[in-house]
Amino acid sequence: MTQRILVTGAAGKIGSMLRPRLARPDRTLRLLDVAPLEPSSGEEVVTGSVSDLEVVRAACEGADAVVHLAGRSGEAPWPEILSHNIDGTFTVLEAARLAGVTRVVFASSNHAVGFRPAGEEAPDYAFPRPDTFYGVSKVTGEALGSLYHDRHGMDVVCLRIGTCTPRPPTERSLATWLSPDDCARLVEASLSAPSPGFRVVWGISANTRARFSLAEARALGYEPRDDAERYADEVSPAGELDRTYVGGSFCAVKEAR
Ligand code: 15L
């Protein structure tokens, strides 16, 4: 039977890297974004916003799971964070519930705990310590996921993604990098683990310099294969905040823009 996965924010950076990596002969990827997209074979496109309940509900019809990536991907003025990230995540969970979709994989972020000291091992489920309004939106998304699990029995897996780029750009990312291939492995594990319930796991590759627990991600079936260390000679040097906090330069934001 063909599996159908709804991917929100599919035109974004992570969505674009995941599309070819999640493609399977027995799977349809239904791509939702406000930006126009050209479907490849095995893909369907829905154009619309994650803040529009009717659009997302229709997009959820017949889906087996949702991979929720949509939203601002860094700090933004509060009204934007509120509508695109916080209300967007509520809308996705509510639409999934109304359509009977029982599993949501949520792209959370290291910035949910960005003010943690960078030198300490970060455990799974580390208590929220957001570094920005953006980080607050990720904490809120995790809290909504917890509620939808406890209240409605949905499986919600929150991925605290580090730096998901083709190569690690900075010295900080030698610890925080999540390679695109490992990202796909983690999403795949989150989609296929039997009855995961509510989880908060780190989305990090097997980086030599990482100080993030991968125990909970591994318990889902994730086996990272990449290590940022092989790019150590190419990265730009770390700044003071990168050495101090998990969230690095995000911790410098002072103004509610
Ligand atoms: C994130 O959550 C952002 O979306 C991304 O742009 C990077 O800043 C990344 O975290 C990071 O911390 O490197």
TrEMBL record:
<keyword id="KW-0560">Oxidoreductase</keyword>
<dbReference type="InterPro" id="IPR001509">
    <property type="entry name" value="Epimerase_deHydtase"/>
</dbReference>
<feature type="domain" description="NAD-dependent epimerase/dehydratase">
    <location>
        <begin position="5"/>
        <end position="163"/>
    </location>
</feature>
<dbReference type="GO" id="GO:0016491">
    <property type="term" value="F:oxidoreductase activity"/>
</dbReference>
<comment type="similarity">
    <text>Belongs to the NAD(P)-dependent epimerase/dehydratase family.</text>
</comment>
<keyword id="KW-0520">NAD</keyword>
<dbReference type="InterPro" id="IPR036291">
    <property type="entry name" value="NAD(P)-bd_dom_sf"/>
</dbReference>
<protein>
    <submittedName>
        <fullName>NAD-dependent dehydratase</fullName>
    </submittedName>
</protein>
<dbReference type="Pfam" id="PF01370">
    <property type="entry name" value="Epimerase"/>
</dbReference>
